[in-house]
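Usage

Read records sequentially. Each one opens with the input sequence:
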Amino acid sequence: MVTLAEKELYQMKLVALEYERRGCKVVLESRHRLPDGRFMVFDLVAINNETEEMFVVEVVNRRRDASELKTRVEQIATALENRPNVKIDFRYIDDDDQLTNRARIEASESTKKLERKINFRLPKIPNIKKPSLQLDRVAVADWWHFKHEVRALGLVHKLDPANSVLNIYNELLSLGVLAPAEEFLEDGPKLDAFQIEEKLVVLLEGGSISVEIAKDIRKHLTSIRFQRKASSRRAPS
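and closes with the structure output:
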């Protein structure tokens, strides 16, 4: 089973990649001196050189008390009082995720039973400016197929099936098995896979998404479909 420390490392790698793609310089385990001379260590610091915005990312457990988080925010604000454009980004991670791990392994097992090469014609994305159930359904189906492709590639390259799809995706990028859609396609998506995942939370909360996001999802799916066939030939034996 993946340890909490390993999960935190995976999380920080994902977040670092996310901020780098936003044009930020990223430093992991960044040390900052407090006014009293002591040092505070942040999990990750990202600085946008154009806007001068500074993002402090902290990986925290969802079970931490709200007062603890408030104290941490105050400590960060004190440590960085000379930086007016600081934003704090808490990324939550659970230490008790046996159910999640089982679900991910079951997802990978079901992937084995499905045909990895999905050749059916994709439905046209409805060009609708207002919220539409039809558009949401197409987007969710495309993202499911994208995740299915990622899991299939993860199995081919013997990656841990207990990892989340985006962790597997990140490992495939690190291995050079995949190139991100925004680099692979000439007219690539504006949002990367990690940003898409965040946007889809809106749907899970009962909202809707835009046609632009739906088109970005389709581009991610198109990209991984093209790349999967080629990379499968290079899979380790």
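Summary fields computed downstream for this record:
- The chain is about 50% helix and 15% strand.
- The chain has two domains: 4-93, 98-233.
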